[in-house]
Design brief:
Largest sheet: 9 strands, mixed
Number of domains: 2
Oligomer: single chain
Number of helices: 13
CATH class of the largest domain: Alpha Beta
Number of strands: 15
Radius of gyration: 26 Å
Shape: elongated
Bound molecules: adenosine-5'-triphosphate, magnesium ion
Structural class: alpha/beta
Length: about 400
């Protein structure tokens, strides 16, 4: 991260979020959840104090040397629009001006600037205009920058509230979105390929609390996909907080599908069973939706007809955040999130025993259902569910001892 600011002796982080659409009780719920998520992310950095204050949050009591790490963590807390590092000073014009000059001096070269001043209460012996004038003059003198109020290179923010002054330059972009946990819970079908980690991240960003479910075909295929799903879960936990991953040995269902149904419906039937099993896990978890990494037309199983034939097996909504994205857009996002390098690690993919030679691209639902009727669906689902294992993946910043055991659901 490039750092264009000095870290003051008593740093205060100013966290902004978008408030559009947040009204009344909904806003309070959103803010309380965001505060909890921020507190959790910063707890192992001396548990700084997080306070909600008029549509933003202030983090106080942090040691200056912890600030870079705090910024890195906060850039993964969904709901934050911007993060700034402020100096906290006495609410006097000379003190505000001195703090602004200290920050402006270390700023990379620029030509123009503007002071954005706010005064919460009216009882100070100066107005917002006074702040703008005094701080502006001091910064101009110290840097040679010109004032440009409409499109400045640099913005110097000065906020005076509750007998304190906050001064900061610039804002670091947060990840946006909504705080994890504000949108309810969902189960994500998590393959460890390129798409599903991106799909999962996108739904976390919309505030969903997510539970990952990975299906593997051992011993017909190697353990690589399972290990990849674990590494990806570790990575996504940094954005989400503790993250459940359920590992599902799927081979028994696959073998029944191979033995008793036409080859061309195999992929669709695998997916139908995955949805049913994921839904059973979701019900146990009080989750109300499923997430997949499907993208329209990307592969044969993702035509409109096939998506419909697959979704028919689910009763919960199936969220497909990548449905309208190109492969390249998904790859670009995987790079930004950091999942790309793990997703492309080699794994057994097209096992000739399990994958069909011919794939139906326009499956008719009644034919798929008829093919499936050769199977005892309930018994197969139950047999698979009897073998699942759930583990919890903790963020790298986790602050409490991590239990070592793997628990079964
Ligand atoms: P991905 O890149 O996510 O692996 P894909 O391009 O390989 O997707 P498909 O194999 O058709 O596409 O899978 C579509 C979706 O079905 C995946 O995005 C994922 O949500 C789910 N899925 C497929 N295989 C698995 C698996 N082994 N475990 C969990 N979910 C899976
Ligand atoms: Mg895949």
């Amino acid at each position: 991260m490039t750092q264009d600011f000095v870290i003051p002796e008593r740093p205060v982080l100013v966290l902004h979020y978008h408030e559009i659409g947040l009204k009344g009780g909904n806003r309070d719920f959103f803010e309380r959840r965001l505060k909890r998520n921020v507190e959790a992310a910063l707890r192992s950095l001396g548990a700084p104090n997080v306070k909600r204050l008029r549509g933003r949050m202030l983090v106080r009591g942090m040691r200056p040397e912890h600030v870079p790490e705090a910024l890195a963590r906060l850039q993964k807390v969904f709901g934050l629009a911007t993060i700034s590092v402020a100096a906290e000073v006495e609410p006097t014009l000379p003190a505000l001006a001195a703090a602004a000059v200290a920050q402006a001096r270390v700023h990379p070269p620029a030509e123009t600037f503007a002071v954005r001043a706010k005064r919460a209460e009216k009882h100070y012996p100066f107005t917002s205009q006074d702040i703008g004038r005094e701080v502006g003059a001091a910064v101009a003198e110290a840097t040679g920058w010109r004032v440009d109020l409409s499109s400045p290179d640099v913005e110097v923010f000065v906020e005076v509230a509750q007998q304190r002054g906050l001064v900061y330059i610039g804002k670091i972009r947060g990840p946006g979105g909504l705080p994890v946990g504000t949108a309810g819970r969902a189960v994500s079908l998590f393959s460890a390929g390129l798409d599903s980690p991106v799909a999962t991240w996108r739904m976390m960003k919309r505030g969903l609390h997510v539970h990952l479910v990975h299906f593997h075909s051992q011993p017909f295929m190697d353990r690589a996909s399972e290990e990849k799903s674990r590494r990806l879960a570790d990575l996504l936990a940094d954005w989400h907080g503790p993250l459940k991953l359920t590992i599902v040995p799927f081979i028994e269902a696959q073998q029944a599908i191979i033995a008793y149904t036409p080859e061309k419906f195999r992929t669709i039937l695998y997916r139908r069973f995955m949805l049913r099993i994921a839904e059973a896990i979701a019900r146990e978890d009080k989750a109300k939706a499923l997430i997949t990494g499907e993208s329209l037309g990307q592969v044969a199983s993702q035509t409109l007809e096939n998506l419909a034939a697959i979704e028919d097996a689910a009763t919960m909504p199936v969220l497909r955040p990548l449905i309208g994205m190109d492969k390249q857009e998904i790859i670009d996002e995987a790079h930004r999130i950091g999942t790309f390098d793990i997703s492309i690690l080699p794994q057994d993919d097209a096992c000739t025993l399990l994958e069909p030679k011919r794939v139906e691209t326009r499956a008719k639902l009644h034919e798929v259902r008829r093919a499936e009727s050769a199977l005892d669906v309930q018994a197969l689902v139950a047999a698979v569910l009897a073998q699942i294992q759930t583990e919890v993946h903790y963020p790298s910043w986790w602050h409490e001892p991590v239990p070592q055991d793997t628990t079964t659901m």
